[in-house]
Amino acid sequence: MSDLGKGRGTRSTTGGRPALRKGPAQRGLTDVSLDRVVEGDCIELLRGLPAGSVDLVFADPPYNLQLGGELLRPNNSRVDGVEDAWDRFDDFASYDRFTRDWLAAARDALSDDGSLWVIGSYHNIFRVGAILQDLGFWILNDVIWRKSNPMPNFRGKRFTNAHETLIWAAKSKDSRYVFNYESMKALNDDLQMRSDWTLPLCTGGERLKDAEGRKVHATQKPEALLWRVLLAASNPGQLVVDPFFGSGTTGAVAKRLGRRWLGFEREADYAAAARKRIARVQPLGPEELETIRPRRAEPRIPFGWLVERGLIEPGTQLFDPSRRWTAKVRADGSLISSEHRGSIHQVGAAVQGAPACNGWTFWHLDVEGRAVPIDLLRQKLRAEMH
Amino acid sequence: MSDLGKGRGTRSTTGGRPALRKGPAQRGLTDVSLDRVVEGDCIELLRGLPAGSVDLVFADPPYNLQLGGELLRPNNSRVDGVEDAWDRFDDFASYDRFTRDWLAAARDALSDDGSLWVIGSYHNIFRVGAILQDLGFWILNDVIWRKSNPMPNFRGKRFTNAHETLIWAAKSKDSRYVFNYESMKALNDDLQMRSDWTLPLCTGGERLKDAEGRKVHATQKPEALLWRVLLAASNPGQLVVDPFFGSGTTGAVAKRLGRRWLGFEREADYAAAARKRIARVQPLGPEELETIRPRRAEPRIPFGWLVERGLIEPGTQLFDPSRRWTAKVRADGSLISSEHRGSIHQVGAAVQGAPACNGWTFWHLDVEGRAVPIDLLRQKLRAEMH
DNA sequence: ACCCAGTTTGAATCTGCAC
DNA sequence: AGTGCAGATTCAAACTGGG
């Protein structure tokens, strides 16, 4: 694991400074303490992590369903079921305290460019979202998990509750968070991935059962959901922490996708089931893990290099797709049109009267009667340079 | 209007005691004060309503978007964002105060069995939802408006923000709120209506424009959305109040559906446009309240979903029927061949040197020695997703 | 009347590195 | 922290105009 935090284990959206990014191992976490389920209170355990050591948090906290009174105080004592408005306020207040505590601890553990996902339902997600914002998290998206096979509303008193909500938030407004745009686009047939994801509930062979055939965990999340989350917002080698580990879906998918992971779980039974489950997971090899490389991450090639390398001759006439404007290439890689001179981008913007222009895709040259974007020459040069 | 609050104007879900339910006229509101747009501050106007006089509140409050500078599309055209003064707040605390004030006033105005809808985005909806709960409202559903034609994310930095969230809440836990289960089921091809509604944005002839062709209101809601809300949660003759009336969609649909209505609006321009709009609306006759059934399209299944769902493993070798070309599946659903990488369609086209290719029928995989087109897996998945 | 190609537009927290 | 600039980035629908 000597390459933790290097290579693919870095942000893919910028391409800059990959060697400078620290992996978990450089941030006070050793191999032996990673890829494990730790039993205990998630708030204490989160507080025990080195500040800034975590790249991604995925959290599936208790939903505070006001049905069975399964509500826990920060000290893990159980709150009794309550009826009237005063007690309900007490109820929410205690849920809010708990939420604030674990979110604040998670925020401290996150690196500056790390991000956090929380999943919830209308019972708790509004409180979680508001507290997130109060703590300085910067919401990037709310994402809807649209269940293709939800439980119907048996009594016919409400709409079928057919979705859950995920919030994706960066540590701060200025964060340079990881978003693997191209991978998400690839996953969605070359269309931008939207904020609504249609996925089925976790059923069938994926659902963990005990010896008597009872489900091990009441709210086991489908692996497809975590697949999308981890692929979108982390890179191989980065550290993913799940403070409410449960049946270990986050760990199973993290292992498969080559991410480092840590799971916190209070209940020994869940922890044991998760360990057993994850031990069976086969990690993908580097080739399968390789995804579409974002153009932003490709090495920068100045236009002048094409001239220098003889891929384009000084004096060559360039034109835009509509052939309304032309410009000539000069020896230093600058362009000159009838009224403007400067870089391919500057002249492209100037002739159009636009505020900006990507000269690589705007300017074309004539190759045997066909208009070819100069970006094609750049790709050729890149291939030559490996 | 002597039958206000009787007959159809009663809850349909219980069937009990219809004659005892009061209509607006019995609760201190006269005909002359109804079905009107009132200009002024919504909090004061809500406070001025007799307690318990309102059957349904629909609210589309400012979202507090906190937009930065200007945003350009890839073609350099400028996005016409929400820059109106009414959407600007100093900070979360002042937005929260505003929200608490209008929600508290709305709650007092609501009858005990009345309910409230609020629409918002991730910028504000979590704060609204938490405050709702703090005030004693009882959330019945959160409903997702899934936009069929959302604005893309132009910079590729996030998921396409393709939905908005509505919260539907009763005045209290014990409320006997109106829910027209059968109407909703009928609207949905005799299936229970789910909590996610797919509807297009308000465009075309429905969108109000001024003399210069500019949109009258930055955020006009589609009538189809209000149609569903009013049909679900109110009965003819009941009173619907919209404290952020804007372009008057709530009033237009309420009039058409035979509901009484009241709209509060601070801006005189909006109020005038709404009055003009609603004057043109023809109320439906009792028999016409039958609705058009929405058409259901076959769901699109991107190839990546097969990978995500475990129907095809990353690393799987694909080949064409003639077995001249092969390619490998990667974790994000893209393919890689010896010379090309991209979507199933792109790589299929590239290896053949063809301009286009249907990857679904071109690529096959080996199942027990037999070549099976990947389209078969798609059909399998589609069947699982209805 | 229809078709096709090009243009416009929508509640948007929308760049990142070098100097 | 501020400035300059390379260069990356869009989907569904409705509308417009010419043939």
TrEMBL record, chains A, B:
Record family assignment: Belongs to the N(4)/N(6)-methyltransferase family.
Signal peptide, first to last residue: none
Keyword set includes DNA-binding: yes
Keywords: DNA replication, DNA-binding, Methyltransferase, S-adenosyl-L-methionine, Transferase
Every RAMA domain range: 288-384
One Pfam short name: RAMA
Superkingdom assignment: Bacteria
Any single GO CC term annotated in Swiss-Prot or TrEMBL for this entry: cytoplasm
GO BP, sorted A to Z: DNA replication; methylation
Organism: Tistlia consotensis USBA 355
Region (Disordered) location: 1-27
Listed name of the protein: Methyltransferase
UniProt feature coiled coil, ranges: none
Transmembrane intervals: none
E.C. number: 2.1.1.-
Annotated PROSITE patterns: N6_MTASE
Domain called DNA methylase N-4/N-6: residue spans: 54-275
Catalytic activity: a 2'-deoxyadenosine in DNA + S-adenosyl-L-methionine = an N(6)-methyl-2'-deoxyadenosine in DNA + S-adenosyl-L-homocysteine + H(+)
Keyword Ribonucleoprotein: no
Gene3D superfamilies for this protein: Vaccinia Virus protein VP39
Molecular function via GO: DNA binding; N-methyltransferase activity; site-specific DNA-methyltransferase (adenine-specific) activity
